[in-house]
Structures are given as structure tokens and as C-alpha cells.
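pls ignore typos typing on phone
guanosine-5'-triphosphate + seq
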Amino acid sequence: MPYLEQGMEVGRIALEHKRMYRIFTAHGELLGEVSGKLRYEAAGREDYPAVGDWVVISPRPEEKRATIHAILPRRSKFSRKAAGSGVEEQIVAANVDTVFLVNALNNDYNLRRLERYLILAWESGANPVIVLSKADLCADLAARIAEVEAVAVGVPVHAISSELGQGLDALAPYLGGGQTVALLGSSGVGKSTLINRLAGKDLQQVKEVRAGDDRGRHTTTHRELFQLSGGGLMIDTPGMRELQLWEGDEGFRDAFDDVETLAASCRFHDCQHQKEPGCAIRLAIEDGRLERSRYDSYRKLQRELAHQARKEDAALRAAEKEKWKKIHKSLRHTKPKR
Ligand SMILES: Nc1nc2c(ncn2[C@@H]2O[C@H](COP(=O)(O)OP(=O)(O)OP(=O)(O)O)[C@@H](O)[C@H]2O)c(=O)[nH]1
Ligand SMILES: [Zn+2]
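k done
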């Protein structure tokens, strides 16, 4: 490989801060910047390194610095729209093997949000695992788990209590050497507490939440990629909390495989599942095979995705128009005067 012949090495992005990157390397942590060539060739945000990326670097260990020359192909990625711009993709986390969808079993518990997280997870290419946290605050664990399993068919579900140290052993298979896990879950569900538990030391600051209010405030700002005692790596980026559905078509179909399968057996292929004869969805709701609430959230998310797609289309058209305006303008300027 030409990179290696030039004395380059591979490192992994642990943190991004204003175009400076903290990189795990064979020389320990180095601070890196992208090379001029990489910057020149980058067409958009997605061509810059993100947390979890494997990158080709030329290290300068004595200065604790490195230059980043290239990003190795991403196996999976979580992305969102870059703030402000219309359609630009910003990678929030890359090369994630497993994503823990963390939901707390107290007031925070919400099946509909879990469905959204599942879509994002399937879309990313990482394998979703549902982690139900704060099990010590839940009276009817078995019922909760059954509910979750019903909306997340085939997805492993684990109930844990970081407080009591219960259920954590079941997470070990995802946290072995060379594996990367990302955490997805709203503020206050116990992500930092879990990381500290798994790392065996306080890596993340845990804030105290007022009694009766489990929403909490945003505390995770510093570190983003953590080395765990079992050899695995864990990604906890603030960006993961701001993920929204966009371009979620694939993930949507995976997350609602049951509803989509039913819809495919409606008599009319463009069935609106209203009053049409031979509607498999209506029949399934009537005889209890499909929960009305699940179907409602399917419709809601479907509308949301369609709305998002229309917005992106409009933004694309606007960007295209702007581009042509600039081209015309520069043509006018270069036109030889008569
Ligand atoms: N009872 C109980 N409380 C927990 C458990 N895990 C975390 N907590 C509490 O929940 C609160 C929030 O925990 P954090 O770990 O800061 O939550 P977080 O998800 O990292 O929150 P952000 O950093 O804001 O995203 C803290 O007061 C923790 O002590 C648990 O297993 N049981
Ligand atoms: Zn139908």
C-alpha cells in the first residue's frame, strides 16, 4: 500500500474540535489536522474525518501532532443534516458495530421514540441493541420488556441497572476487543453512568438530576470515544442526541417490516388503508394482530419522512439555481467586450 511505503500509519478519530482532531495512534493520543490535499479534494462535510473514522496519518510523536491524509472507507455511519445548510451530510459517528438504544425504565420510557431510534440504527449499518436502563426504578420489568420486544422484532433487549450493577454482564459480548459501540438515547437516561460502569472508572461526568425530573441537562461535552476495560470502544457524542430522521427510507422499512409486509398483501397496491376492500392492515388491526398505536406511529413517521424528502428536494433545487446563477454571472464577466 503506497501510504505505508511513505511511512504513514493508521489512527482512529476520538474527538473533533473545530477542525482539529484527537487521534488514537500507536504513539498514544496525537492532535491532528487534515492535509491540504484532503481539504482541497473534500466536496462536503462528509469528506472530513468524524469520530470513529480510521484515518491514514503521518505522525510526529515528539510534537504530539499528526497530519491526516485520508479516511479509510466507513463500514457504518450515523449522519445528520449539517446545521444551517440545506442538505449537507454531517457524519456524527463512523464504524460503529453495535448501537445501544438507551431508554430509561422510569418516566423517560417511550415506545414511539424507540421506534425512531430503531430506524436510525438500521439506516446506519450498525446492529441495534435495546438497553433499558434504570431497571431498579421499574416495578413490572417483564411487561415492559414484552412491550419493547413487540415493537423491535428480532432486536436483543437487555434491562440493566448501572446503579445496582445489574444486567451489565449481558452487554459484554458487544464490548469485546476491537468492537465499537455507540450510545443513542436522550439526556438523563444514564449513558454516562453506564460508560463509567463499563470502564471501571469515571470517564464521563454524571450530573445529579432533580428529584421527579429525569430529563437532566446536557453534560457530555468533552470526550467522545472511550476505551473500555474489556478492550472495546464506546462512542458517546453530543451529536447522537440531535439525530433526526432524514433519508430514512431503508431504515424505515426495516423498522416497520411487520406493517410493510401486511401492506404488501392489501388487494390494491396503492391502498390507503382507509375503506378499501381487501385491506390487510385494517383486517390485522381488527383482529388484533397489529396494534393501532403502532400503525399510527408508522403513518406519522411516514409523513415525517415524506415532508423531510420534500424539504430536501426544495433545498437541492435552490442550491442548483444558485450555482447556475453564479456560473451565468461569471460568464457575463468573462465575455469579451465588443
Ligand atoms: N436509579 C437509577 N438511576 C440511574 C441509573 N443510571 C443512571 N442514573 C441516574 O440518572 C441520572 C442521569 O444519568 P447520566 O448518566 O448523567 O445520564 P446521561 O444519559 O449521560 O445524560 P446526558 O449526559 O445529559 O445525556 C443521574 O442522576 C444518574 O445517577 C440507574 O441504573 N438507576
Ligand atoms: Zn390496505
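Residues 151 and 294 are 8 Å apart (CA to CA). Confidence is low (pLDDT under 50) at residues 209-221. more later
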